[in-house]
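Can't paste images in this forum, so I'm doing it all in text. The chain is below; anyone willing to post the predicted structure tokens underneath?
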Amino acid sequence: MTRRGRSPAHAPPDADVRAGSAEDLLRRWIGLDAATIGSAAIERAVRSRMSALGVDSAESLLDRVRTEVAERDRLVEEVIVAESWFFRDRQVFDFVRSFVGTLAAIPGRLPVRILSAPCASGEEPYSVAMDLLDAGLPPTHFSIDAIDVSHAALDRAERARYSSNAFRNADTAFRDRWFRVESGSAVLDEAVRSRVHFSWANLLDDSFVADREPYDVIFCRNLLIYLTGDARRHVERVIDRLLRPDGLLVLGAAEPPIMQGDWIPAGGHSVFTLRRGVHAGLPLQATRTAAPPAAPPAGRPRRSRPADAPPAAPTAPFPDARPAVTADPAPEKPDEMRGLEQVLHDAGALANARRFAEAITLCETWQKSLGPAPELFFLMGMLHQSAGDADRAEACFHKTLYLDPGHEEALLSLALLASQRGDRRMAETYRQSAARALARKASP
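Text version of the structure:
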């Protein structure tokens, strides 16, 4: 989900827009770092609400915002716009499907619990539900909760009516299986809708985790990059409390380095999933070959498996499952014939085992023979970033953009690096470029 300012709205020309006060309120309510979207976006949101209410000063608006929950929510919804589409980053859903299939094969583990937070207009949790149903998992074997701070986004999610903008992937066969056309919109089948439970919630509210059972999978994609440092730490604590010891955390491309706890990569190239630094014995690697186990850092003993973690279980198909439609595994090739896909796969497996230096060496070696490729440079950037080498990471992200100027993940990664070194101007420039790249991709 991306968050960005809406188009300017008309307000009285002499309106006194005190964006700073609104920024403070938004920071306290939803943890928003105003620098990530720019003060101008917040000013536009304030002007829009002033115009809608017919007030001529920002302070009058903010007085109502402070005392009226409904008006607070409307201001929040002016600032954030939930944008997503079905099966965004298909490889992520492939990995999660394999992970959930493993859990579903463990006696006593059902139903597998999944959380999408924030969920935007429902495309992400509905994608998970469709994928699991297509794979043959019985509906009673999983449950999906989805939350967001936007009432408008939740209303759209519960209506489950979508325009062509929500179907941006090349493979849209799922649309024929699960949607019907009605008055120009694609309406989702009730069999999928019934598997997702939507509710309003704020991850910064401590009451959100009260009496809530832990989850096996948590999607929290492209939220942390818009939060203040304090809000990020709070969200990480909430995730840590909500995720089972052997659970899977799914983040956006630029977000794994933000996490401060004991997290390790759980997936291969471009999956951006994490699990705790606890080895529960589950076969989490969803690639063609298993990665070697990660060695504990020097001087630090390996943790034992927690008492409530399940025993090791073989990867098994879902009961009575229809085989997923996937490409045939690539045949083994001599080194001189090795293709880009295989290199990315092998480097991802090494990264999953935290063997970052070996993964980087592999990428650098094959880059010389394969030639420049944005996918390879982006992966190298993520590897350098994970290894703590910000300078080399930045260089690789710039090479990615030289080959693919619209690579929004590289732009967001550069924004994060600029923010970490205190260069807010460059961070804002990169974020704006990423927003434009996403907008171009969203255009029909």
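The beta strands are 112-116, 142-148, 161-162, 179-182, 185-188, 196-200, 215-219, 243-250, 263-265, 273-276. Residues 19-79 form one domain.
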